Automatic annotation (TrEMBL), chain A:
GO MF entry, a single one: transmembrane transporter activity
Transmembrane regions: 12-41, 61-79, 91-110, 116-137, 149-168, 197-214, 279-311, 323-345
Lineage of source species: Bacteria, Pseudomonadati, Pseudomonadota, Alphaproteobacteria, Hyphomicrobiales
UniProt keyword annotation of Membrane present: yes
Keywords: Cell membrane, Membrane, Plasmid, Transmembrane, Transmembrane helix
Cell compartment(s), UniProt: Cell membrane
Protein name, entry field: Inner-membrane translocator
Source organism per UniProt: Sinorhizobium medicae (strain WSM419)
Alphabetical list of InterPro entries matching this protein: ABC_transp_permease (IPR001851)
UniProtKB/TrEMBL annotation, chain B:
GO MF annotation, one: transmembrane transporter activity
Designated name of the protein: ABC transporter permease
UniProt feature coiled coil, ranges: none
Source species of the chain: Sinorhizobium medicae
Pfam families assigned: BPD_transp_2
Record flagged with keyword Cell membrane: yes
Lineage: superkingdom: Bacteria
Lineage: Bacteria, Pseudomonadati, Pseudomonadota, Alphaproteobacteria, Hyphomicrobiales
TrEMBL record, chain D:
Chain ranges of the ABC transporter domain: 6-241, 257-498
PROSITE patterns linked to this entry: ABC_TRANSPORTER_1 (PS00211), ABC_TRANSPORTER_2 (PS50893)
Family statement drawn from the similarity comment of this UniProt entry: Belongs to the ABC transporter superfamily.
Molecular-function GO term, any one: ATP binding
Gene3D superfamilies: P-loop containing nucleotide triphosphate hydrolases
Name used for this protein in its record: ABC transporter related
InterPro entries found in the cross-reference section: AAA+_ATPase, ABC_carbohydrate_import_ATPase, ABC_transporter-like_ATP-bd, ABC_transporter-like_CS, P-loop_NTPase
Keywords for this protein: ATP-binding, Membrane, Nucleotide-binding, Plasmid, Repeat, Sugar transport, Transport
SUPFAM superfamilies listed in its UniProt record: P-loop containing nucleoside triphosphate hydrolases (SSF52540)
Origin: domain of life: Bacteria
Amino acid sequence: MRFERREHRPLALVIATPVLAVLCALALAGVLIAIAGAPVMEAYWRILVGAFGSRLSATETLTRASPLILTGLAAAVAFRARLWNIGGEGQFYLGAIAVAAASSQLLGGLPAAVQIPLLLITGAAAGIVLLLVPLWLRLRFSVDEVVTTLLLNFVAVLFVSMLIDSVLKDPMGFGWPQSQPVADAAVLPKLLSRSRLHIGLIIAAMLAVLVHLVQSRTVFGMQARAAGLNPAGAVFAGVPLGRTLVTVACISGGLAGLAGALEVMGVQGYVTTDLSPGYGYSGIVVAMLANLNPLGVVLAALFTAVMFVGADGMSRSMGIPSYIADVTVALSLISMLTGVFFMQYRISR
Amino acid sequence: MSVVFDILASAGLWAAVLRIATPLILGTLGALLCERSGVLNLGIEGIMTFGAMIGWLAVYNGADLWTGLLVAALSGGVFGLLHAGLTVTLGLSQHVSGLGVTLFASSFSYYVFRLLVPVAGTPPTIEPFQPIDVPMLSSLPFVGPALFTQTPPTYAAIFLALALAYVIFRTPLGLAIRMTGENPHAAEAQGINPMAVRYGAVVAGSALMGVGGAFLTLSAFNSFFPTMVQGRGWICIALVVFASWRPGRALLGALLFALFDSFQLRLQTRLSGVVPYQIFLMIPYLLSIAALALMARRARVPQALMQPYRRGER
Amino acid sequence: APIKVAGIHASPVENAWNSVLHKALQDAAAEGAIEYVFSEGVSGTDYPRAMREYAEQGVRLIIGEAYAVEKQARDVAADYPETAFVLGSSGKEAGENFGVFGTWNHDGAYLAGMLAGKMTKSNVVGSVGAIPIPEVNMLINAFAAGVKAVNPEAKHLVAFIGTFFDPPKAREAGLAQIDAGADILFGERIGTADAAKERGLKSVGSLIDYTPRYPETVFANALWGFRPILDAAIADVSAGNPVGKDYTAFGLLKEGGSDIAYVKGVAPADAEAAMEAKRAEIKSGAFEVPRITDEPK
Amino acid sequence: MTEAVLDIRNVSKRFGDNLANDDISLSLGKGEIVALLGENGAGKTTLMSILFGHYVPDTGKVLVGGRELPSGKPRAAIRAGIGMVHQHFSLAPNLTVLENVMAGTESLWHLRSGTPAARRKLNGICQRFGLTVEPDARVGDLSVGEQQRVEILKALYNDARILVLDEPTAVLTNLEAERLFATLKEMAREGLSLIFISHKLDEVMAAADRIVVLRGGRKVAERLAEKTNKAELAELMVGRKLSRPVREPSTPGEEVLKAAGVSVIIDGVERLKSVDFSLRAGEVLGIIGVSGNGQTTLAHLLSGTVGRDRGELLLFGQPVGDLTVDEAVGAGIGRIPEDRNEEGAIGEMAIWENAVLERLPRFSRHGLVDRQAAQAFAGEIIDAFDVRGGRPPTRTRLLSGGNMQKLILGRNLIDRPRILIAAQPARGLDEGAVVAVHARLLEARRAGTAVLLISEDLEEVMALADRIQAIVNGRLSLPIAAESADATKLGLMMAGEWNDEHEVPHAL
Ligand SMILES: Nc1ncnc2c1ncn2[C@@H]1O[C@H](COP(=O)(O)OP(=O)(O)OP(=O)(O)O)[C@@H](O)[C@H]1O
Ligand SMILES: Nc1ncnc2c1ncn2[C@@H]1O[C@H](COP(=O)(O)OP(=O)(O)OP(=O)(O)O)[C@@H](O)[C@H]1O
Ligand SMILES: [Mg+2]
Ligand SMILES: [Mg+2]
């Protein structure tokens, strides 16, 4: 048995594959739900309700998708240029803490119209800085970035933990390790009242379109792809390898940093070490689900959010262990990845 | 300074080093074995969690401790099989698959635990491995209490490190694994089945990870807590790099990391709050990165690491 | 009909603190006082959603912890005035429907310290905590104060393990303190007593009664009871009273919320007698254990 | 023929729509050397991969010594005494020679590698066949020729009685190739049977006893070496008469490129040592040399991908600083890299993208790629240069080597460059493709393009170049006129034997 790359993908396949993958994941999750003694069909219904069934669940799903779009884009942009940025989580946290620091220490007095853009830039810049370190190590010492970016995640979270335990500790936080909050002027406008949904979603969606245009239409996009696919060939064609990778790193790290910034400014208001339920890591899976396509990232992020928020809500309304939500997400990611694979390859003898 | 010396001169420190290092040694060896065959296994954190849970659960349900370890190894192997299926057969991106395995294995273990173990206060306990004094050696001054009063899995882990070093560098199987990690096409041309080697290495490596996790619940502690693996798996990934893919150095690396940790716990006790504890926790990661920067030029990274191998494709 | 109560636990319910809440809620449910549903391992990001979901499901009272989401939790409460929220918090109550409680079992810790101070032979005792947050600090400081009260010469060691969930690490921290001379350990974290057990020493537990788990080792526990707080909250909800108040006091020894549970005859008789006397003083209000939330040194 | 040691019977293999092997039968006698000849994509590698068990044939079977070989099992093939030297080396660079040779030769479950015995055996083989390599050297540190030897040693170590070599000389210098064939003949005398694949007719004629020609997956002819000639073989291969074009006399124009005392140091090694040359419009200057002597660096220097450390470069009479790729392309320098898969094209990108990647400034505005213009440009190349097997949006990977090379030539030549740097333009191509490439180069010369042809192939250089310089160890000889060159003289030059006496001191 071998796998052969499909040069053409029939539309039916493109539609059937994700559907089959979701069904497969749901079937597996169904077994676990049944083992917990809950009626499976009702549980499925509850997942739907939990994800879209009310104003609350719909806004929550979208709220959760926003950072995933950004971290997914961050991974997709980098992976396309074969820059294996596994460090989205760390960049997320650094973006978050930079925003909290800047707003609470420096820019807090500025009006929203000035402060918010400045903070978004600050958050992105922090993410960039963290990714430039492994990139520098790669360009200078040819150190593989998979491991360095992964390790820097833990360094970044510890660094944040240290800051919110000391200089940035919120004196009003009753001694808990949490950062000083961003200024009121830095809080992002809500899209809907009585919900957590904020304009970060719009920003993320617009950036997805922008990244798509940059990748598909611009000279830089083409050069970045060339650099990723075949560095020697790219160099021969005059692609400035170092500069291209640095730019890619800036976009990627910036997006991940921005995700953290938006989460602080739009949702949490301050930074703790459990600000992210693994958004940086999920972003990588989201990017792969989307086959590294920026517009696909939006869909994949929504899908991931739907699965999680839906299953989480289901666990609460059915009274089964809440860990089922993560299990369902993991199962659907794995089956979706497998599905995407069979969309690209066919089995031959 | 004298505080530092005091701490280093206490046998208790060195005994703690071995204990703290044990799960790291096992996990690192497991990750190393996978990577030597060309497969990065980021599923380690989840596999260790599941091993910790299932090993404990087996013993809680009446199995003996060694059977518990065996069950953990088997479960690790099963997750290894999943990872190998995704990365070796399908050739999916290894880090993505690994993250998927971690997400699945850890949440699945919490789910299973919650279903099978009714909670009432703290989780129930089992009777864990007890330290055994190595005859003669344990009565040596200083060295005895420091090194020869551990639980059996600790001795086993150290032995395994040496055994793995032997297998990798001295046996035909090890050569086959190394060659598959360097160039699977070359391996195939020599009549070695690279797919089989990768499957074997990933399954065996993941089994070691499972045992590493089970050490936490069967020796280091006596019950299972969700999230108790606490990033030890990621440390192992760092240690493999730090060890430049050599089992002997992996052993040293794990011991060094454990030394930092146990030293840190003792230093805190003496001078609390002088250095933020986060600094100590960062050190192993930063050291690994530094080690990478220093060694990368003499790159001994398995050349085919993270490269899928598909038969008949070039 | 019993009122519907939801518990939202940021940690798994094995965590000692959560287990106290969980157990109280389960007991209340078993007695038919409430109907209890819960979610556990809810991360900071998901916590407000869990609150909203339960509120929308018509749950009357939500019990949980606001520590990581103080601001958002109050926002949610403002959005759902029909639902009562009583959450563990270091902050203040808000509005009609947002009540708070602290975890004040320092009285028991002080009393256990009085026993430990008299029992130590090495004149060194140790405490292992998670991270230096106020309620942990307060507890450890109270234990140290109890030790000092009866044995001013005694030395008190402190270690924090930097995380809430790592029993093996808490055990290592305990062993480190034993190596540094401690012969009685106060375990704010589970795992500490295992160190004492391994070396045949004595240990003090916190929040719940660890003695059944470590019969030879844990001779005293600074218990914290959630039931009085819960009962007060349920009563308020049933009566239609606002819950926007501080329920902490119901958890004090004076109110029957917390206490010391100890194995008689382990400590010297005079130590036990002195301790019991102090206990009575606390109950009567004649003595108040100092509440110091600074990081213990 | 003596008794057949190998019998391939009616083997067919299909990849998707492509019938790569169509009912091929082939037998091999003891001590015989058979050459397998065919265009790119004719199915040679596929047939050998089936023989070795990399692929499972759709129909047909392989018999070794009369016994059928289980299909799809390299291990079984090795056991049966088949050794294979792959077209693309399959070595593990970080392992030692001995480890590469030993891997897979012992049962995987042995508790200890028999290293000392293996070392003795390897040394014995080395001595017997005169193939010297250091057993403990890291393979990645060896030269290409030495790596080739390791490949052969691997096969011999496995006691191969049938040795298959897939394009063994593609990466070797003439000298190394001659040595290799001497060794192969020695092996045949010792009773080994050999099959080798090559595109080089000279080699085939010189070394083979029998020649089998494949075309389009079918076996179209089988000839004894003494009963055929190069012309016939070329015709059999492509199915029509072929002859290589030759340069007609012409007068070169003005000097367009001049190097004076140029040195390049890479990673501390001086790759080019004070080289001088001058290139005029309408001429072909051939640079001949054994690979590894600085050709790659010279090509990179003129292509704008490495800078120089010393010396002067004059472009159209003007001194230039460090040439960048954009400047080079902008100035009208066409560039054909020596490795089309590594540098020439990015396989996963579309044909149109590869057509314009190095000339993006022309096909973009305000940083946006002008896709329409780019696709039209690619379409023009495809039509004008007869690129078969793809349209502009096709992934370039799907083109065969020859067609990929036509694409690369096309994108450089379609705009009539003033200078063309052509490095190994016909390497690895089949005879038909070689003819096409040579014709294009001569056409460019006629149109006034100055061509710098860097090649290891004597025949190619003699056929195309007006003047020839040899490159040895980073130094360039003085040019000699093509008319005064013959194989012996060029051979000596490539070995570093040239006369520097009347070298003029640098004028600059
Ligand atoms: N792995 C493969 N998958 C699909 N098609 C293949 C594969 N390998 C070869 N082919 C097809 O089989 C045909 C024969 O390829 P093969 O590699 O055997 O040619 P060849 O004669 O060795 O060419 P060359 O001289 O260029 O090496 C090709 O045209 C190609 O289309
Ligand atoms: N794995 C593969 N899948 C599909 N087609 C393939 C594969 N490998 C080779 N081919 C096809 O086989 C044909 C011949 O390819 P091949 O690489 O053998 O060309 P080539 O002329 O030998 O190149 P080179 O000169 O670099 O050796 C091409 O059409 C190519 O697309
Ligand atoms: Mg071939
Ligand atoms: Mg070829």
